[in-house]
Amino acid sequence: MSGSGEPRALRFAIIGAGMAGILSAIKLTEAGLTDFTIYEKGDRFGGTWRENTYPGLACDVPSHLYSYSFALTPEWSHQFSPGPEIQRYFERVAREYDLERRVRFDDEVKRCEFVDGRWQLETAAGHRDEVDVVIAATGVLHHPRFPDIEGIDDFAGAWFHSSRWDHDVELEGARIGIIGTGSTAVQMVGALVDQVAHLSLFQRTAQWVLPQVNPTISDEQKEAYRDEPEQLAELHSSLSQAFGVFANAVVDAESPEMQWIEAACRTNLEENVADPELRERLRPEYRAACKRLIISPNFYDAIQAPNAELVTEAIERIVPEGVRTKDGELHELDVLVLATGFHADAFMRPMEVIGRDGLTLEQEWAERPNAYLSISIPDFPNFFMLNGPNGPVGNFSLIEVAELQFEYVMQLIERLRSGKCREVAATRSAMEKFEAARVEAAKKTVWVTGCRSWYLDDRGIPATWPWPFDRFRAEMQAPKPEAFEYR
Ligand SMILES: Cc1cc2nc3c(=O)[nH]c(=O)nc-3n(C[C@H](O)[C@H](O)[C@H](O)COP(=O)(O)OP(=O)(O)OC[C@H]3O[C@@H](n4cnc5c(N)ncnc54)[C@H](O)[C@@H]3O)c2cc1C
């Protein structure tokens, strides 16, 4: 350890002003570390919730859990609140913590290079900064994935990715096509079917759907939460425990909890889809929760509406009038939405990151993204990721994940601040050992039971945390000294 032993003033760059960037700024401020700038390529706070504005967008984790633990609110309208309300929540929290003046909006960080113990940053606007510590809060589901279907540019109507919704396009009375059957598509189908003339859902893979009730939060209940905020804290904590059960179920494909989830999905399909032929076309050929589980209060009702059509024939190509399927049928459309997800492995890209001795992130991640505990990359000292590669993703609150990760990172930052060391990064052996254990554990999870999903990497290994959530909580308590190199 080669720190001076003298406390040191640290300057930080936080990249990204979404949920994790806001969290980082608040936590640094609370720790008295106020010399930081947040860089955000968008024009507002909110990240995911700024970018996704499609009809029907909602959290599929209860709102009282999908909230910062230090900024619980009695005001959520629903148990699972809609996207615009979540966006307003993040903007309000950022305002309350006076973060507006700390952020450079519309300025993308293009390059970070570690030179003589500090990170030199360059932005798209030509701004330069030199900092001691970088916190990359650049998001997971951020870069839209476009399907490889011929002819999209020939389409005569309006088309866009679900995360780039064009609100100028008239939907009233339109014939709309949606490609994809993930959570986004399912939410859109429920929200749009009553508004449009005709809705065609192009399904490559059927999905299991867990039923959901989404009650409004009554005024009396909100009043009670306002009067007794400890009730909110208790609710947050009990929801966290309950979702822990779900997180544990998916990492043990044979667990009783997993069997309960499967049974609930099967019953939902059997009891709520009347037409046996449609029911079979909606029946997946793999186990529930193998793909990210869909939770919906209205999908089966919506897809059985008279103006809705489930298209299971594969798409041949897109033509000016609509979508032609392999059976030769033309599905005429005015609007086409690509609900085809994101490049979940595009962490931090296309930002250029250069660590010690000229090692680039492209070289380090030539095979695929990797990091010790999703947080730290060997030879990229004083550079920490939130919601980085192979971390917990799934049907639980990523806010909770980021909060735990930040507490862990903060302990490393404290070593830098106290002068115990000047540079800290995970060791290569710690990362390799962690990755080997992770790959082994992943073999027992439900994600490898025979489906294609965005969780799987190029080897077919789920790029996720494969252990119970309690183990994640325990791991995040404190960095293991031997896992880090301190210089
Ligand atoms: C449709 C949808 C629904 C979801 N629903 C849920 C849910 O129900 N529950 C749940 O837990 N999670 C959900 N998620 C996941 C969601 O992404 C996370 O919960 C959370 O919002 C991620 O926050 P983040 O700050 O890590 O990343 P993001 O929200 O993606 O924010 C990253 C920010 O970094 C900025 N950025 C990236 N690169 C740069 C750069 N080089 N320079 C400057 N700025 C940069 C981006 O513009 C963005 O604003 C959902 C995601 C999507 C897409």
Which keywords apply here?
five-stranded parallel β-sheet, 13 helices, 21 strands, 487 residues, binds flavin-adenine dinucleotide, alpha/beta
Can you describe this structure in just a few lines?
The protein is α/β, with parallel strands linked by helices and about 475 residues long. The protein contains 13 helices and 21 strands.
Beta-strand content bin? 15-25%
Q: Determine the number of helices (DSSP H or I, runs of at least 4 residues).
A: 13
Largest sheet data: 5 strands, parallel
What is the mean pLDDT? 95
Helix content: 25-40%
- CA radius of gyration: 23 Å
The outline comes out as globular
Structural class: alpha/beta
Distance between the termini: 5 Å
Strand order of the largest sheet: 3-2-1-7-19
Number of strands: 21
The unique ligands bound to this protein are: flavin-adenine dinucleotide
Low-confidence stretches: none
Can you offer a commentary on this structure?
The protein is α/β, with parallel strands linked by helices and 487 residues long. The protein has helices at 19-30, 48-51, 83-96, 183-192, 219-227, 229-250, 256-272, 276-281, 299-303, 361-364, 398-418, 428-442, 469-475, and strands spanning 12-15, 36-39, 103-104, 109-115, 118-123, 128-131, 133-136, 158-161, 175-179, 198-202, 209-211, 294-296, 308-311, 315-319, 322-325, 330-332, 335-338, 352-354, 383-385, 424-426, 484-486. Helix 1 packs parallel to helix 11 (398-418) and helix 5 packs across helix 6. The longest helix has 22 residues, at 229-250. Flavin-adenine dinucleotide binds next to helix 1.
